[in-house]
């Protein structure tokens, strides 16, 4: 069995995992961890770097820290993280140390301040290679013990992020969310008609996609994204098989020579979330003004995709807002979607997780006021 430690928006994490690994059986699912069986360990490790919503992957063992310590000739140094059951980790670690001492095993736990380890600590201490980072998952009726197989490389995300040219007034899809959207789409050949800084396509290249296409009405964004994408792809050990960029108003997507002449099977994009909002200037009037500005764009975009009979996957983000602790959703977009699109399921039929009432999943980041609602669609 394989355990996946889920990211903050755990439903998105689960949707991504179950798409990347379709041959699975759910053993347990909670907000922190998803445990699956019928997975090949080598296949999981091979595909792990594709996952944007998974923090850590562990192999579930029929074992314990005592058993894992038996083959160590020197002092056994280990790390332990616990999930779900409310236990005192300090007492747990001291108890394990006493148990090991009873069997004449010299040991040392290295949990700083008796807390679970962060991804940065696991990477810094090279615990995956040493095989000494352990996890216990338990509550009143289950108990799993596992060893870390893989940890999300947070430094690689930062490197890709900060190597881009950018406009600080322009928002950007988070790279991890881009990966999740790509995986949920079952990506093959991706087109982003509102490319911004090129983050969607950079993340798709990073997970071995070799065909990318993009366009934007803003010439500065076309040039900036093109430089970012070319700079990133130049440093890969594999080369792009094909790519193309054009300047285009996405409202007139039916005129895109990319869609008309290339074998595109996935559109992944996010429209400009419009003007920046802070706690000082956000208001219902500004939100409504923003909605009105976006409605005509969305209406034209979907109508023209229908006009050219676009029949492949479309994964897209729409904004929603928080105003005085109340969520304000983009209700106008729901009627547009209902006219032109079928909403595709995010989860398999036998998955018990629920989506929103509009069949979407949400992505929220702390201290932000404009958040994202994610749909997987097909044109009717």
Total strands: the figure is: 17
What is the CATH third-level topology name of the largest domain? Answer: Rossmann fold
What's the shape? elongated
**CATH architecture tag of the largest domain:** 3-Layer(aba) Sandwich
CATH class of the largest domain, anyone?
A: Alpha Beta
Could you name the CATH homologous superfamily of the largest domain? Vaccinia Virus protein VP39
Distance between the ends: 39 Å
In terms of structural class, how would the helical and strand content be classed? Answer: alpha/beta
Number of helices: 13
Q: Could you tell me the strand content as a percent range?
A: 25-35%
**Mind summarizing the main beta sheet?**
9 strands, mixed
Helix and strand pattern: EHEEHEHEHEHHEEHHEHEHEHEHEEHEEE
Please state the average pLDDT score.
Answer: 88
Unreliable runs: none
Notes on the structure:
The protein is an alpha/beta fold. The chain has two domains: 2-152, 2-Layer Sandwich (VC0802-like), CATH 3.30.2130; 164-379, Vaccinia Virus protein VP39 (Rossmann fold). It is built from 13 helices and 17 strands. Strands 9, 10, 11, 12, 13, 14, 15, 16 and 17 form a nine-stranded mixed β-sheet that branches. Helix 9 packs parallel to helix 10 and helix 12 (284-307) runs parallel beside helix 13. The model has no long low-confidence stretch (mean pLDDT 88).
In terms of topology, how is this protein built?
Layout: E1 2-6, H1 10-20, E2 25-29, E3 33-37, H2 41-47, E4 54-61, H3 65-69, E5 76-84, H4 89-102, E6 107-109, H5 119-124, H6 127-130, E7 133-138, E8 143-151, H7 154-162, H8 175-184, E9 190-192, H9 199-206, E10 211-216, H10 219-234, E11 242-247, H11 257-261, E12 266-270, H12 284-307, E13 313-323, E14 326-328, H13 331-340, E15 341-343, E16 361-363, E17 370-379
Parallel strand pairs: 5-6, 5-7, 9-10, 9-12, 10-11, 12-13
Antiparallel strand pairs: 1-3, 1-4, 2-3, 4-8, 7-8, 13-14, 13-17, 15-17, 16-17
Helix pairs in contact: 1-8, 8-9, 9-10, 12-13
């Amino acid at each position: 069995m394989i355990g996946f430690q889920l990211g903050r928006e755990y439903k998105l994490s689960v949707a991504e995992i179950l798409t990347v690994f379709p041959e699975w059986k759910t053993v347990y699912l909670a907000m922190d961890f998803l445990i699956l069986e019928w997975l090949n360990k080598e296949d999981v490790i091979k595909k792990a770097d594709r996952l944007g919503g998974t923090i850590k992957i562990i192999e579930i063992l029929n074992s314990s820290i005592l058993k894992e310590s038996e083959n160590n000739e020197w002092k056994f140094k280990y790390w332990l993280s616990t999930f779900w059951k409310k236990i005192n980790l300090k007492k747990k670690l001291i108890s394990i140390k006493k148990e090991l001492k009873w069997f004449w095993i010299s040991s040392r736990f290295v949990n700083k301040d008796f807390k679970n380890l962060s991804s940065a600590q696991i990477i810094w201490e090279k615990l995956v290679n040493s095989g000494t980072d352990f996890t216990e998952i338990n509550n009143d009726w289950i108990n799993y013990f596992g060893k870390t197989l893989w940890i999300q490389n947070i430094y690689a995300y930062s490197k890709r992020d900060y190597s881009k040219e950018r406009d600080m007034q322009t928002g950007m899809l988070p790279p991890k969310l881009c990966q999740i959207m790509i995986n949920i789409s079952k990506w093959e050949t991706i087109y982003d008609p509102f490319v911004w800084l090129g983050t969607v396509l950079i993340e798709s290249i990073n997970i071995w996609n070799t065909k990318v296409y993009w366009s934007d009405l803003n010439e500065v964004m076309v040039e900036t994204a093109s430089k970012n994408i070319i700079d990133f792809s130049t440093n890969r050990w594999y080369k792009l098989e094909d790519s193309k960029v054009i300047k285009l108003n996405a409202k007139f997507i039916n005129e895109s020579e990319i869609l008309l002449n290339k074998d595109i099977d996935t559109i992944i994009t996010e429209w400009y979330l419009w003007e920046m909002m802070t706690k000082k200037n956000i208001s219902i009037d500004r939100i409504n003004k923003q909605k009105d500005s976006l409605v005509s764009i969305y209406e034209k975009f979907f109508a023209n995709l229908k006009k050219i009979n676009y029949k492949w996957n479309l994964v897209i983000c729409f904004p929603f807002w928080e105003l005085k602790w109340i969520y304000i959703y983009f209700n106008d977009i729901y009627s547009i979607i209902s006219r032109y699109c079928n909403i595709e399921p995010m989860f398999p039929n036998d998955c018990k997780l629920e989506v929103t009432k509009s069949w979407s999943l949400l992505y929220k980041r702390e201290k932000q006021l404009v958040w994202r609602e994610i749909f997987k669609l097909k044109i009717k």
